[in-house]
């Protein structure tokens, strides 16, 4: 399996994040991608190739243009305003408020375009975001070109980014961009299987009213886990999308047996949908040692996930999402991929 990777992710470093009552160094850090890349090499998964640059047209197929055009302006506006530290939202237009924002107030604009304080910027963040998007499209082209599978080693991740909002370390929804690109390249149906511990609220929001992209999420129950405000089992899609959004919320402490039961049901529903291609939002924060998550999967379980996905017999694009047990992130993420290849 080929991996697409860019060193430009490393410029997104040192960003701070707001967790319960404290501002701390971000968990979504460069070493995550470096441990995964090292494991791709040590496991001899296959060639690691660089990105092909794209314009932002494919991003604007699923994100609002004003949102995308805002992203590269954040850091210059933040510094021009004389603000220090990470560019971070701290006020949001919630229910009953208005969304018109004075254009020169970057702090207000950050809140307008985000759902939490978790998508923060430093000087190199935009270059990293753009590289992650290019990585996803470059890997998608490998699958379109005939490869059975490919691995987009994306950083920053994307599945919390909606049509016009960022959050949870996500800015451009790499998996959603790839899914739409496959459709624009002639696919009739695409399934997105999101196995990250956190619900892919952005991905769901983007495709909720559509029947040409099936969105399946296995995740921590939003009644008790971030991102909270989307991801319940009764969210099945709307309009043309009715029945094409499937959520499998699970409780704290979920281990392999229960998690696999959700995966099995999800794969059955995916097979019934008969997509032309599968995009896997590959997060491995379901791991028992993940510092911010509450599931109990073990390293030996990840190859089983890959094997099950391979049994679908469909072209598959893996897009990296989350995972914060940095020492084991490579073992677990690449474990899915070697499992897929049944090595
Ligand atoms: N106490 C809970 C704090 C939650 N803080 C934000 C967690 C973000 C998770 C991001 C992710 O893992 O879903 C992604 F795949 F997008 F990277
Ligand atoms: Zn996650």
Automatic annotation (TrEMBL):
Protein origin, superkingdom: Bacteria
Residues covered by the Histone deacetylase domain: 28-330
The UniProt record lists the keyword Kinase: no
Names of required cofactors: Zn(2+)
Metal-binding listed as a keyword: yes
Keywords: Hydrolase, Metal-binding, Zinc
GO molecular function: histone deacetylase activity; hydrolase activity; metal ion binding
BP GO terms, sorted: epigenetic regulation of gene expression
Record-stated family: Belongs to the histone deacetylase family.
Protein name: Histone deacetylase family protein
């Amino acid at each position: 399996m080929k991996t697409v990777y860019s060193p430009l992710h490393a410029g997104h470093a040192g960003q701070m994040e707001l967790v319960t009552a404290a501002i701390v160094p971000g968990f979504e850090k460069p070493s995550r991608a470096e441990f995964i890349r090292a494991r791709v090499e040590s496991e001899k998964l296959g060639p690691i190739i660089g990105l092909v640059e794209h314009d932002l047209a494919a991003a604007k197929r699923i994100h609002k243009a004003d949102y995308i055009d805002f992203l590269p302006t954040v850091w210059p506006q933040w510094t021009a305003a004389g603000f220090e530290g990470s560019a971070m939202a701290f006020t949001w237009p919630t229910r009953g408020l208005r969304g018109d924002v004075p254009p020169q107030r970057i702090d207000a604009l950050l809140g307008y375009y985000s759902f939490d304080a978790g998508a923060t910027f430093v000087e190199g963040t935009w270059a990293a975001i753009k590289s992650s998007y290019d990585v996803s499209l470059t890997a998608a082209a490998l699958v379109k070109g005939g490869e059975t599978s490919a691995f987009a080693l994306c950083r920053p991740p994307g599945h919390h980014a909606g049509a016009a909002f960022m959050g949870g370390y996500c800015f451009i929804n790499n998996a959603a961009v790839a899914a739409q690109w496959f459709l624009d390249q002639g696919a009739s149906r695409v399934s997105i299987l999101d196995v990250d511990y956190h619900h892919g609220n952005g991905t769901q929001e983007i495709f909720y009213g559509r029947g040409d992209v099936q969105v399946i999420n296995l995740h921590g129950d939003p009644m008790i886990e971030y991102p909270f405000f989307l991801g319940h089992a009764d969210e099945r899609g709307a309009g043309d999308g009715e029945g094409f959004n499937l959520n499998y919320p699970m409780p704290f402490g979920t281990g392999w047996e229960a998690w696999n039961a959700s995966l099995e049901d999800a794969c059955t529903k995916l097979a019934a949908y008969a997509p032309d291609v599968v995009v896997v939002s590959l997060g491995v924060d379901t791991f028992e040692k993940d510092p911010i998550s509450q599931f109990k999967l073990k390293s030996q379980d990840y190859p089983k996930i890959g094997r099950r996905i391979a049994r679908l017999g469909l072209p598959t694009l893996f897009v990296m999402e989350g995972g914060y047990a940095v020492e084991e992130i490579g073992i677990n993420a690449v474990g899915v991929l070697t499992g897929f290849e049944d090595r």
